[in-house]
Amino acid sequence: MNEAIRPGVDNQAQEGPELSVIVPTFNERDNVTVLYRRLEATLPNIAWEVVFVDDNSPDGTWDVVRALALKDSRVRCIRRIGRRGLSGACIEGILASSAPYAAVIDADLQHDETQLPKMLLLLASDQADLVVGSRYIEGYKSEGFNKQRAGASALATEVAKKMLRVEIADPMSGFFMVRRDRFEQLAPKLSVHGFKILLDLVATAHGSLRAVEIPYTFGARQHGESKLDSMVALDFLGLVLAKLTNDIVSLRFILFAMVGGIGLVVHLTTLFIALELIKVPFAEAQAAGAIVAMTSNFIMNNFLTYRDQRLKGFAILRGLIMFYIVCSVGLLANVGVAFSVYDQEPIWWLAGMAGALMGVVWNYAMSGLFVWRKK
């Protein structure tokens, strides 16, 4: 597969690349070589490099990229261990790049790499700080965007534009090019979690980025599968809420609180069943509700809030046990406060809510320290 790949031209080594193409990858081993060859064909007169940021793909995508790098010094690989997420990968890739302009493009071959020279010209001629491949302007064509995904994207776009006052037509696009110096100014305020790096970038800039949008052809996926999962909606909502608070409250905390809100419903449902249907004493019913809610919170947090540090295998059991331990103080306070409220006013849902809210801050702080701690 690699024999046909020609070594890159070394004349850019002295001057450095003009364009860095950032490609976040996860299980894309069948696509990266095709994308490399497309970039080579599209950018013959531009000094460029491509930085593949791989989240330790089980299919060995990083190994294929390294084989490319041995043949061409313009190819680089950042293999991330213990970290996952599209936004974080893009941020790391851009900050690790060496060109004055950085483009973000998916490895799934659906974005139109032939637009890169036009995007670069707009930036290099100082007509813009940001160029976005847009799906919502005249000239856009789609070969691989199904109706369900298109509808969800359109809804999210309208929500983002109205709530965050984002002025560009397609803040949900994953295909864009930006001046690296402007990106570096905004990078400390960006979230490394989630999928919508462009929305985060534009919302954080508060209108200070001169943006130009160009149409492109959205192609059909050739290999692999979409990185978007069922949790993306909550992830998006969390990002919007974080930006509405001007990043005073972190995206991770908002996601943790959203999971906690779902856990509260689980807690009250369990409490109602135990108290009203099974007829157990209130203290035991409240404790049962707390344990069931903690378990559901752990599962949801593992798949959403701490997705980039997701526990797997035996570590899930260890993490669950640790989650119970660090929340034990909160559980004691939970039951104590709830029982006290119920003793004063026997309204089961009010007492349950008062007890459940007691442990939120403790659970969040201790979870980050002991359960999903960074290695």
Sequence stretches where pLDDT stays below 50 over 5 or more residues:
1-11
Binned, the helix content reads: 40-55%
- Tell me the major beta sheet: 7 strands, mixed
Shape estimate: elongated
Amino- and carboxy-terminal Cα gap: 36 Å
Mean pLDDT: 84
- How many H/I helices? 15
**Cα-based radius of gyration, to the nearest Å:** 24 Å
Secondary-structure element order, N to C: HEHEHEHEHEEHEHHEEHHHHHHH
Strand count: 9
What class, by secondary structure content?
alpha/beta
Quote the beta fraction.
5-15%
Lateral arrangement of strands in the main beta sheet: 3-2-1-4-7-5-8
Describe it for me?
With 375 residues, the protein is of the alpha/beta class. It has helices at 12-15, 32-42, 61-71, 86-96, 116-124, 147-164, 180-186, 197-205, 232-244, 251-277, 282-303, 314-326, 328-344, 348-358, 360-371, and strands spanning 19-25, 48-54, 75-79, 101-104, 130-134, 141-142, 176-179, 211-215, 217-218. The two termini are 36 Å apart.
Task: Provide a concise account of the structure shown.
Helix content is 52%, strand content 11%. It has 375 residues and is α/β, with parallel strands linked by helices.
List strands and helices in order, with pairings.
Layout: H1 12-15, E1 19-25, H2 32-42, E2 48-54, H3 61-71, E3 75-79, H4 86-96, E4 101-104, H5 116-124, E5 130-134, E6 141-142, H6 147-164, E7 176-179, H7 180-186, H8 197-205, E8 211-215, E9 217-218, H9 232-244, H10 251-277, H11 282-303, H12 314-326, H13 328-344, H14 348-358, H15 360-371
Parallel strand pairs: 1-2, 1-4, 2-3, 5-8, 6-9
Antiparallel strand pairs: 4-7, 5-7
